[in-house]
Structure formats: structure tokens, C-alpha cells
Design brief:
About 30% of the residues lie in helices and about 15% in strands. The chain is built from 38 helices and 44 strands. It has a 10-stranded mixed sheet, sandwiched between helices. It has a 6-stranded antiparallel sheet with strand order 15-16-17-18-25-24. A 5-stranded antiparallel sheet has the order 5-6-7-9-8, with no helix packed on it. Helix 7 (about 120-130) crosses helix 8 (about 130-140). The radius of gyration is 37 Å and the shape is flat.
């Protein structure tokens, strides 16, 4: 009889994976397991050392110096290869491992076995100075006999990797010119040579990312790249951009005044740009890339921190083609557009304004460098998205974003020559990407060479947007963007109408003119006596010198050839002219004058167009000189940054000009026209004008609760009742005035939860019924409120219902339904509800409310029962009493509140699960129900909540003992008076996320289904009442809020709206729904598959799909790829379930476990599923249609696992559980091929046999991201059934 082996582990044990004999491309299974089990510093047995050292021991059984180095290398290599997606070693691995080690003693110990020809001293010097990595590889693979050969020929680390000759008897050194061939030592077999040079050298020798010559040989397709992580960020028709994390020893950055973002271990983040051919012929594409290379190569020598410098260039073989890549530093703070959205300007802060103007000057200086530094070039696509935000080198500032430096990026091919610029720009404009910031000459003179002043127009557009953001914030900047349309200029003539010189006519966009005029008249820019400020000088520079239509070509700009074809592309590569492809000449000229001479020449040149008589657009030197003048005058005290006489404390209107049109123009950046709203947790707050209008009369009649508050002079003069009210202040001033002013004190206390600095300028303004800070999309900082349960509170609820009913927010596709039982609460004034046990006699359209609540827990033994004498549940023994009617006071406080709300809302019927479902009374020996009613009614739960007129959620009550209509916590309140009218301003309390989403009620398993299926829900929380329906969330403070993820659950027509989502969004919603449910608590763990079954059933119905246990057949493979989201899961014992007829849940479903789960990170569109159709079959494909039970078995092909290194991405469901059989895997899918250094990944289930393996019955025990070498492929696998 075979002895059973038992072990306790958190990962598969390799000794049980019976691997067939194979070549030494990876260490054998037993060797790996032995190595991993012997990681202690001191060996414990001679037999273990014998295995590790390959038999090299001294006569007395002690380890030799070579044994110790071998063991050290083995341990370090295994440890370093344990990363999640890393199958390579750093180039410094060998040097680090051998540091302070006696290499000579180790070589001496191996002298007789290796038969060294070289002296020990020479070999030691060779290893330590020239070949530490090579020595480490040879020792680890047991090919140390080759060390002599490499030492003889001076072949060290710098010569690798090499090419293995065709017969595996020699290697070729491709890094030498001409290539040198070396015949291998006869003691090395062909098999050993193949493994060493066809596999292991790629693990040990990974290239550095550096700036190479353009004709540098491409990397081998087998070469790993030194990326620890690499994720695609964006993709266009021209390129793919990745965010990568590079090993710190494989890349170097030139000092450039910017900080390089790194992880905690000092590994830098980079941006990797892969160029795409976009349909071009190979030669043409290569020439374009070469031109871009030449432009970036030139930029590397420019002395400007405001121009991006490429870090590396490399090519990599991809079949017959070559992929080409540029590597740049990663911008930690994103681009300028993102900066505007996330940052709040501080215009009254001297250092802040100085930083703004220095950065704007830096951008102009960068263009000056680009235009005039020995190379006639232009950017051609300057826009906020191409201006990146880095940290300044050496900056330690955290909150103060003046530590950022703005850097112009995307300077390449499309800007080095006019024809290539036009080719690429036309293509990009067709996609709506570049046209917004393009200069007028793009349309006026389409066949004319692009001047450097094209960039000056784009810079003027960018400056204007920066000023708008600076003065009015991101909301007004977005309004400007929408009103602008497509361009900053407008064509005034129709295409068929030409002027005298046969050209169209352009003018500055009227919207741009309107905003510029508004800024010029802003009292912060020009105060008393029209005094100049830095901002007024800047807007004048933009208006008069940058956004100027006239910009005739400069004689020094390259011109197209006289007979150049109009629409054909001309390109050239370097100095070699080819006849099979078009030619291109990089626009480089000899320097003709110093920068100062250029500036003087341009400034003295006639700035008037010969053709039109209009002033011409400036060049970059003039822009720089303008900024220098502004900065000099501010520092000299001649002007201020901004008009400080306004001191920011009066009621300024911080908005732009009135719109020139009432037509809502689509944003120029939204070229797709599609709504691709992502699922996120960001909440947007806006005023609830509809409810406010409906309640206007009652809100103006609120009773006077407080005496008028004591206010400072500024606050007493504020017209808070006016929608036009706004004012500025700082946190420091508010804190100082708090002792004397109630409003300053309220605002100061409210700011404690906001990330503001003492001297930050804060802009407060009325928005709807609230007071907001800086951005209208952020939560209010103070608001109006009412009291729960009083006439005004009830009127708010009625107004919500009235508006929702009027606008038909609910368009139910369900057949009218009434629950089996309902509680008849009577009309207003009634005190005696009764239970209706037969609702079939009621009108089908009868309205009822449903209560969503927590049951709480029973009191501990010996403790008094607070609900003694109350009817908490319906049993067989008290159902007749309830049918006859009971007094309100006979019911728990929570039920009383629900009844009171139903009466006030004039809804006669109420459904409470504990009263409308007969509960099993285990203490009653005469109870004959035995849970049968609960089983029947639980199956109808989805219809109960789906058909309810409104669901009442008792969010603030932990059990029926508590009221949910409670006295609210005391809030800071300021009472203000205008004439005979009182106004009340209180601290903001709108927080749906914490009050509801993270509230205790919503942590209950049954409630997720109740919320998702309810058409409208009213949440009663500690601070206020919320309403949720398909239109979002409404707050009692007359504010509305929403976010994309929560709105899916609040959608009144969910799940009928589910099929309308795009596939990716469906998958994200499906996974988010179950991940969220898995975190929720249940009184009975066996309810895990039941508490969401109603929602699951309805989802399957509307999708026309089959499924069960949390898995849908349409997402079958993704549904199986889940993993534990915590330390461990625990298998649920379904033998104790309430429904004795319910079948157990199979192991491949997460519903079989308690604990939270998450779905594995399987990229959308990045997985091959069809390849593995034969390895796993959906049980719903073979299930009989007439069988109502969900299938229990999965048919699958199980494969052996060979190697699972420490740290491998294997996630056991129950770590620590004892297993009696080896682990195997079921491949569910695999990653699509990639040339980006990404490891090929196999998404798999980990399974183990239930009983003898020959029975073919398995259970799931985990999930894994496996690699090819970890799976046995040379055996067919075994058919199995997974239970």
C-alpha cells in the first residue's frame, strides 16, 4: 500500500510535481525544491551539501570555499528571480554576490575538477574585474569549465550576449566589428551549449537603456528588457506610450534640473514611446523615425530644463520587422491640462505668482532654443497636453506645487521639416487632436512652409488658457473651452470667396476677443487709475504680439522646392540619398549670429506685414524679452503681480464674460463624440434647483431658531442670500477673526478637513443652496438644512417623490406585483396597523413601501431584552394577532418610524421582511413551518424590492431597537438677517459615500440586492436624509451628487439598463458587483449564494445568459479567475444551511467561501481564450434546459506543474490548509503575444484531487499567473471533473 504524504503549506510543494527528465534549461524539480528548502546560512547535513555542491566536498565532509560560493550564488539567483513578472537578473547581480568573497579560494577548491590552464591569480582578476556576471552564470549552470576559455580570449561581461553558431560548437561576438567567432571547449556538450547560450545568457545579460546611435544593431527578440513593470497608457495611430518602471542599474539620466520619479527602492519610472508605421512603407517609416531621432539627439545637447530630453533609444527584433522605441523621464504630475484640473491657483501669493511667470518664460525660452539653437526647427503641436509637469531637482516641497517645472514634450519628426509637419498634422487634425492650437496659416496658406511663428500662436493660446485658469479657475476655463469651438481663430470668408490676393481671411475668434477684453477690465488686473500689473502686461503681450494673424514666412525658414509635388511626402535619412524612397533633408543651418544679435535683428525688423499692413506676430526672442521686462519691473517695485488694492475681501465676480451664444458647443478636445465615462468613486456636487424651487415658499418661512449671530464687518456686509455673492480670504485670516465672527469661525472649522495652506487664496461663492470653495464640483463647505420628521422634512421627501414621478424616472418593464403579505398602516392619524396575509384581493397597482434594515443581534445571556413584549417577527403563534391589528407601541421603534413615514407620504402599505415572512421559531416545539415560508419568500425577494414604490433604508439604526428618525447631531450654525428675513448657514454635511456607501447597513449582504433592485430609495442617516434614483442622489440640504459607479446601483431601471453598456463596462460592473458583495456580512454564512440570487437571476434574464454561483456563461472564463482579497478564505459548511434542499456550492465558485475576493488582473482585449476551449468547458453548455438546478461540475483538462519558485503569483484560497495530493493546474486563458518585454502569462486554476487521482474528481484550491516553464507541456494532461 502506498503511504499517504501529508503536508501543510501556503504554496505548492515541488517534490510532488513529478517532472519528466529534460534538458537543463531550468533546474530540475527536485533540485529546485531542495535548494529552496535549504536557505539557512549553515548546512545541516552532509547529504544536503552533497546535492547542492554537486559532490565537491573535502575528505572530512566539510563544505569547500567553492561549495559556499556556489550555494550563495544559487540562493541569490533564486531569490532575485522570484519577482512577479521578472525572469531576468540585474547586470550588477554577479558583482553584488561576489563582493567580499574569496574568489581565489573558491577557484583553488575547484582546480582539479575544472583543470584550470590559467593561474589562479589571473583567473581571479579576470572574474573580479571583467566577468563577475559571467562567472555567476557559469557557476549557477555548472558550466564553470568554460571560464578558462573566456579568460584566455579576454571575453568578459561586456561581450555578452553572444550568438550561438548553427552547430552549437562555437559562439560569435556580435558586439565586435568585424564579428569574431570562438570555438567552444570540447568538454561542453551541444546540449549544454544550447541551454547556456539560447536561454540562460538572456536571463543574466539584460541590456541597459541608453542613448545609442541610430544604426545600432537591434536587440534580439529573446532579449529581456529591464522593466520591472510596463503598462500601456495611451495609443494613437502613430505611437503607443507605456509607463515603465526600470531597474535602477539599467538606466542613467543626464542631470537636467528635474527630479526623476522613482519607487521606494530607487527604481525610476519612464515613459516608453513605441513608434508605429501607420501604413507607411518600411523605408519611409524608417526615415521618419531617423528624422525624429536626429531631432531628439539634437535636443539632448540643448541647455534648457523646459525641453524634454530623451533618455534612451533602442530597437528590438519582431519577426522580420523591427520595433523602435524612445525612452523619456516619466512626468510624475502629468501634463498641464491635468495640472489645471487638480491644482488651485494662489494669485495673492508673491512666490506663487513669481513661479507662474518664470515657468511661462521658461516655455518661451524653450521655443527660442528650439528655433534658434543651430537648428531651424519648430514644435508644431504645442498644447497643454504636450507640456509636462516634473518636480524640480532637489525640491522637497510637498503641498506647494511651485516645486513643479513645466517641460515641453513631443518634439520630434513632425516639427523638423515643413512637409513632414503638414503630412502628420493633416492626419492628426483629421482625428481632432491638433487643430485647436494650430495657427491661421494652416488654412490661409496650406502649401506654404510653416514658420517658426506657428509655435508662437500656439504659445499664445496656451498663455491665454493659463491666465483664465489663474484668474477664474478650472470651471471657467472649461466654459471658455466649450464656447470657443474648434480654433482660436475664425475664417471670415466662405471658401468660395477670395480676397484680392487670392487667400482666405482670418481673424481672432470672437470668443477669444471677448475673454481678453474681460480680463483687461478685471479690477484685479488694472486698478485705480488703470495701473498696470504683471497680469495686465501679460494679457497685452498675448493680444498684441502672440495671437496675431499676420505671420509671413521668415527668409531663414526652409522653403519647399519650386516644383515640389503638392500632396506627396518627402523624406530623407541622414546624408545617404536613396532612390527607392522619397528624400528628406533635416533643416539644420550654420549659426549666423549670437542670440543677442538675433534678438536685436528681429526687434529692429519692420513688424508690419508687407501684404496686409497689419502688425506681424512676434518671434520667441521678443516674447522672452517681454517676460524679462515684467519680472524686472515686479522685482523693482514698479508693478505688482496683481492689483492688491482689492485685497481679495470684497464681493468680486470671479467669472468670465457672458457667453456670446446660448448654443452649447462640444469641446474641441472631444473628437470621438462617444461617452466613455469610466467607473470611478468620484462624487460631483451640484445644487438641487428643482427641489429648491418646489420648496421655495416653505424655505422662506423657516421658524427663527437662533438669534442673529455676531459677525465681523466684512461678513455682516455679505449678501449671502444672493446667488451673486462671492468673496476671497485665507485660512490664516479666518482663524484670526474666528473669536469675533461666527461666520469666520464656521469657515475656519470647516477648512480643517481641507488640504489648504495658511496663506492660500480661497475663493468662496454661492452655488445653489450652498457655499462652495474654489471649484463648484467639490463638496459644499457650508449649506442649508432642515430638521427630520418636521413638516419641512416631510415636504422635502414629498417634493423628491413628486419630481421623480413627474419626470417618469422609473420606466419599469415589470409586470405589476404584490408581495404575499403586507402591513396595512392606515391613513395619517391611524395608530393600529394590521397584517394582510392575502394580497390577491388588493388592486394590482397598489403602492407599498419596503423597509431595508439591520436585524441586529440577540442580547447575551443574562442581559435584559430591550424588545421584550414587542412583536419583532411574525411566527405561526402570533400571526393571527397581527392580522387583527396591533397598536404602534407594540412594535419596535424602527418599525414605528417606518409606519410614520408611510402615513405621512400617504402610502397605505408597508413591507418589512421580519413581519411579512413567517419566521422559523426554534424555541417553539409546535412550530410546523420549519422555515418553509422563508424559503419560498426569499426566492421572491427580488420582486419585492423591484416592485416597491419606494424603499426606506434605516441606515442609522443598528437594530429594531433604535429609531431611525433621530435628533441630529448639533451643527455649527450662523444666523444672518436681511430686513425681516432670517438666513441660516451651517457646516456642510453632504457625504453620501461615508453616510450610506460605507454605512453599517450597506455592509450587510442582503442590502446590496435590495439597493440594486429598488427603483427609488430614501436613506435615513445620522446627519440627514438622502434620496437615490436613476437621476442620482439628492441631499436634504438641497444638493445633488452622483458618481458613475454608485449610479449603476441607483439606476431605477437596473438591471434592464445593463445590456446597453459596452462590453468592457459590463465586465467591470459584473466584477465590481460581486467583489463588493463578497465583502458584506451575513448573519448566516450559508446565505452567501441566496442573498444575491434574486439580483443574479434578474441579471441573467435581461442578458439572455445562463449562469449561477456568481459565474455567467458569457463571462465564463473571467468569472472563474478570482482570488482571495484577504489573508485567507474559509470554506462554508453548507450542511448547516436553513434551506435543507439547497445543493452545496462547488469549489470553483467564490460563493463556497466566506471572505472577500477580487478578480485577477486580466487585461481587457489582451487574452487568448479560444486557444483553451478544449481545456475547460462551460457546464451550461452541457446542462439540460429542463433542469432548474445550476450545474455542479466543471469538465476540464488538468496539467502537472513543474516549478513554482518562491514569490510566484500563486494564490491559494486557504493558505495553511492540509492537502493530501499534489497540486495541478487548469489553463483558462493566456496573454496575447507582446514585443514589449512582457512575460507570456497563463491564467490558471490550481486544483487538487478529491480522493484517488484515477477517479478524476478534483476541487479548486487557488488561482495563479503561471509561466510556460512552470507547466508540464510534454504530457497530454488528464480529463477531470472539478466539484
Amino acid at each position: 500500500m502506498t503511504k499517504s504524504v501529508t503536508w501543510n503549506t501556503s504554496r505548492p510543494i515541488q517534490e510532488r510535481f513529478k517532472a519528466p527528465k529534460r534538458h537543463h534549461s531550468f533546474p530540475g524539480t527536485v533540485a529546485i525544491s531542495r535548494r529552496l528548502s535549504k536557505l539557512s546560512p549553515v548546512p545541516t547535513a552532509a547529504t544536503d551539501l552533497q546535492m547542492i555542491s554537486g559532490g565537491s566536498m573535502t575528505g572530512n565532509g566539510m563544505a569547500t570555499p567553492y561549495d559556499r560560493i556556489y550555494r550563495l550564488i544559487e540562493v541569490e539567483v533564486v531569490k532575485r528571480l522570484r519577482g512577479d513578472d521578472q525572469e531576468w537578473l540585474s547586470l550588477t547581480c554577479g558583482r553584488e554576490v561576489l563582493q567580499n568573497r574569496d574568489v581565489e579560494a573558491a577557484l583553488e577548491a575547484k582546480r582539479y575538477q575544472a583543470e584550470w590552464r590559467n593561474g589562479l591569480s589571473r583567473l581571479t582578476t579576470f572574474v573580479q574585474e571583467h566577468a563577475p556576471q559571467l562567472f555567476t552564470m557559469l557557476v549557477y549552470t555548472k558550466n564553470e569549465k568554460l571560464l578558462d576559455l573566456f579568460c584566455d580570449h579576454g571575453i568578459g561581461d561586456s561581450m555578452f550576449p553572444v550568438k550561438l553558431a548553427s552547430k552549437y560548437t562555437s559562439i560569435v561576438f556580435t558586439k565586435e566589428t568585424p564579428h569574431r567567432e570562438l570555438k567552444l571547449d570540447s568538454r561542453v556538450t551541444k546540449s549544454e551549449a544550447f541551454n547556456l547560450f539560447n536561454f540562460w545568457q538572456w536571463v543574466f545579460f539584460v541590456p541597459e537603456l541608453r542613448w545609442t546611435t541610430f544604426d545600432h544593431p537591434p536587440l534580439d527578440s529573446r532579449s529581456h528588457l529591464p522593466f520591472l513593470t510596463l503598462h500601456e497608457i495611451s495609443r494613437t495611430e502613430f505611437s503607443i506610450v507605456y509607463k515603465g518602471l526600470v531597474h535602477r542599474n539599467h538606466v542613467k539620466f543626464e542631470p537636467d534640473g528635474i527630479d526623476i520619479a522613482t519607487d521606494d527602492e530607487g527604481n525610476p519610472y519612464v515613459a516608453v514611446k513605441q513608434l508605429l508605421p501607420n501604413g507607411l512603407m518600411k523605408g519611409t517609416f524608417t526615415s521618419f523615425v531617423q528624422a525624429e531621432y536626429q531631432a531628439l539627439d539634437a535636443l539632448r545637447s540643448f541647455d534648457s530644463q523646459h525641453l524634454i530630453k530623451a533618455t534612451a533609444f533602442y530597437k528590438k527584433k519582431a519577426g522580420e520587422a523591427e520595433d523602435l522605441f524612445f525612452v523619456f523621464p516619466w512626468a510624475e504630475h502629468g501634463n498641464l491640462r491635468k495640472f489645471w484640473k487638480e491644482k488651485i491657483p494662489s494669485i495673492y501669493n508673491h512666490n506663487y505668482m513669481k513661479w507662474v511667470f518664470q515657468q511661462l518664460l521658461g516655455l518661451a525660452d524653450a521655443l527660442q532654443t528650439l528655433h534658434h539653437e543651430n537648428q531651424v526647427s519648430r514644435h508644431g503641436d504645442l498644447k497643454p497636453e504636450n507640456v509636462l509637469c516634473f518636480n524640480m531637482s532637489g525640491s522637497t516641497a510637498i503641498k506647494d506645487h511651485t516645486s513643479c517645472v513645466l517641460v515641453i514634450s513631443d518634439v520630434g519628426l513632425s516639427r523638423t521639416h515643413d512637409k513632414s509637419t503638414r503630412f502628420r498634422s493633416k492626419t492628426k487634425m483629421a482625428a481632432g487632436e491638433t487643430i485647436a492650437y494650430a495657427a491661421p496659416e494652416t488654412e490661409l496658406f496650406p502649401d506654404q512652409a510653416t514658420s517658426r511663428r506657428f509655435d508662437i500662436w500656439s504659445l499664445g493660446c496656451l498663455y491665454l488658457e493659463f491666465i483664465i485658469w489663474l484668474l477664474y479657475g478650472v470651471e471657467e476655463l472649461e466654459r471658455f473651452d466649450n464656447e470657443l469651438g474648434l480654433r482660436f481663430y475664425a475664417i471670415t470668408n466662405k471658401p468660395a470667396t477670395l480676397n484680392v490676393n487670392d487667400t482666405k481671411k482670418a481673424e481672432v475668434n470672437p470668443t477669444v476677443k471677448s475673454w481678453i477684453e474681460h480680463i483687461k477690465n478685471d479690477p484685479r488686473c488694472t486698478g485705480t487709475g488703470r495701473k498696470e500689473t504683471a497680469v495686465s502686461r501679460l494679457i497685452a503681450l498675448v493680444e498684441k504680439r502672440l495671437l496675431v494673424i499676420a505671420a509671413n514666412p521668415d527668409p531663414k525658414d526652409p522653403l519647399p522646392a519650386p516644383n515640389e509635388p503638392r500632396d506627396e511626402l518627402q523624406v530623407t535619412a541622414d546624408s545617404q540619398v536613396r532612390t527607392d524612397i522619397p528624400t528628406f533633408k533635416l533643416g539644420v543651418r550654420e549659426p549666423t549670429a549670437s542670440s543677442e544679435e538675433v534678438l536685436n535683428t528681429m526687434m529692429s525688423r519692420t513688424a508690419v506685414s508687407v501684404k496686409t499692413g497689419d502688425a506681424e506676430r512676434a518671434y520667441a526672442p521678443e516674447v522672452c524679452k517681454g517676460f524679462d521686462s515684467i519680472l524686472r519691473d515686479v522685482e523693482g517695485g514698479v508693478i505688482e503681480w496683481i492689483n492688491l488694492e482689492q485685497d481679495g475681501l470684497t464681493s468680486l465676480s470671479l467669472q468670465g464674460p457672458e457667453s456670446l451664444t446660448n448654443i452649447s458647443t462640444r469641446s474641441r478636445r472631444d473628437s470621438s463624440g462617444k461617452n466613455q465615462e469610466p467607473l470611478d468613486d468620484k462624487w460631483e456636487y451640484i445644487p438641487d434647483e428643482v427641489t429648491a424651487t418646489g420648496l421655495r415658499a416653505s424655505l422662506h418661512q423657516l421658524p427663527q431658531v437662533y438669534d442673529p449671530s455676531k459677525l465681523c464687518g466684512r461678513c455682516a456686509g455679505l449678501s449671502l442670500w444672493s446667488q451673486e455673492c462671492s468673496f476671497d480670504d485665507t485660512a490664516a485670516r479666518l482663524d484670526k477673526n474666528s473669536a469675533q465672527c461666527a461666520l469666520c469661525r464656521l469657515l475656519s472649522l470647516s477648512l480643517e478637513s481641507w488640504a489648504t495652506l495658511p496663506d492660500d487664496n480661497l475663493h468662496f461663492f454661492r452655488f445653489g443652496s450652498s457655499l462652495k470653495l474654489n471649484n463648484k464640483r467639490l463638496p459644499p463647505i457650508a449649506s442649508l438644512c432642515t430638521l427630520p420628521g418636521n413638516p419641512t422634512h416631510i415636504q422635502v421627501l414629498r417634493e423628491w417623490i413628486r419630481d421623480c414621478d413627474t419626470h417618469q424616472c422609473v420606466c419599469s418593464q415589470d409586470i405589476p406585483f404584490l408581495p404575499t403579505r403586507l402591513l396595512d398602516v392606515g391613513k395619517r392619524g391611524s395608530k393600529k396597523p394590521r397584517l394582510i396575509c392575502e394580497t390577491s384581493g388588493l388592486a394590482k397597482e397598489a403602492k407599498y413601501l419596503a423597509l431595508s434594515h439591520r436585524w441586529g443581534s440577540l442580547p447575551n445571556a443574562g442581559e435584559p431584552d430591550p424588545l421584550a413584549g414587542k412583536i419583532v417577527c411574525t411566527y405561526e403563534k402570533n400571526i393571527h394577532r397581527l392580522e387583527n391589528g396591533v397598536h404602534d407601541v407594540d412594535l419596535p421603534p424602527m418599525y414605528q418610524d417606518a409606519i410614520a413615514i408611510a402615513r405621512e407620504l400617504e402610502v397605505q402599505y408597508l413591507w418589512i421582511d421580519s413581519l411579512c415572512i413567517i419566521q422559523h421559531d426554534k424555541s417553539d416545539p409546535f412550530d410546523k413551518d420549519n422555515g418553509r415560508d422563508w424559503k419560498k419568500e426569499s426566492e421572491r425577494m427580488e420582486q419585492v424590492f423591484r416592485s416597491a414604490y419606494i424603499t426606506l433604508a434605516a441606515s442609522c439604526a443598528s437594530s429594531p431597537v433604535e429609531h431611525f428618525l433621530k435628533t441630529r447631531p448639533e451643527r455649527q450654525c450662523v444666523t444672518m438677517k436681511s430686513g425681516n428675513t432670517f438666513y441660516y448657514l451651517s457646516e456642510a454635511i453632504d457625504d453620501f459615500y461615508n453616510d450610506v456607501e460605507q454605512g453599517e447597513l450597506n455592509k450587510r449582504g442582503w442590502v446590496l440586492q435590495e439597493r440594486a433592485l429598488s427603483r427609488r430609495t430614501i436613506y435615513f442617516t445620522e446627519t440627514q436624509t438622502y434620496w437615490e434614483c436613476g437621476e442620482g442622489v439628492r441631499c436634504e440640504t438641497l444638493t445633488k451628487t452622483k458618481n458613475s459607479k454608485a449610479s449603476l446601483l441607483g439606476d431605477a431601471n437596473f438591471p434592464y439598463s445593463f445590456p446597453s453598456y459596452v462590453k468592457g463596462k459590463k465586465i467591470k460592473l459584473y466584477q465590481d458587483l460581486y467583489e463588493r458583495y463578497s465583502t458584506l456580512a451575513l448573519s448566516y454564512l450559508t446565505d452567501r449564494p441566496v442573498a444575491i440570487r434574486g439580483l443574479e437571476t434578474r441579471l441573467l434574464r435581461v442578458l439572455g445568459a445562463k449562469g449561477g454561483y456568481g459565474v455567467f456563461d458569457i463571462y465564463f472564463r473571467r468569472g472563474l479567475l478570482w482570488q482571495r482579497g484577504q489573508a485567507r478564505l474559509k470554506r462554508i459548511d453548507f450542511s448547516e444551511q436553513r434551506d435543507k434542499e439547497q445543493q452545496p456550492v462547488p469549489s470553483w465558485s467564490w460563493m463556497a467561501y466566506s471572505g472577500d475576493i477580487r478578480y485577477m488582473e486580466v487585461p481587457l482585449g489582451g487574452v487568448e481564450w479560444d486557444l483553451w476551449d478544449g481545456d475547460i468547458v462551460s457546464p451550461w453548455k452541457t446542462a439540460k434546459d429542463d433542469n432548474n438546478k445550476a450545474p455542479f461540475e466543471l469538465e476540464a483538462l488538468v496539467r502537472d506543474i513543474k516549478v513554482v519558485e518562491p514569490g510566484a503569483r500563486v494564490f491559494l484560497d486557504e493558505p495553511g490548509r492540509t492537502f493530501h495530493h499534489p497540486f495541478k493546474c487548469v489553463v483558462v486563458g493566456s496573454s496575447k503575444p507582446s514585443n514589449q518585454g512582457k512575460i507570456h502569462t497563463y491564467y490558471a486554476l490550481i486544483v487538487t484531487a478529491l480522493g484517488p487521482e484515477e477517479n478524476g474528481v478534483y476541487e479548486r484550491v487557488g488561482a495563479a499567473f503561471l509561466r510556460k516553464h512552470q507547466i508540464v507541456w510534454d504530457s497530454p494532461g488528464a480529463d477531470a471533473r472539478i466539484h
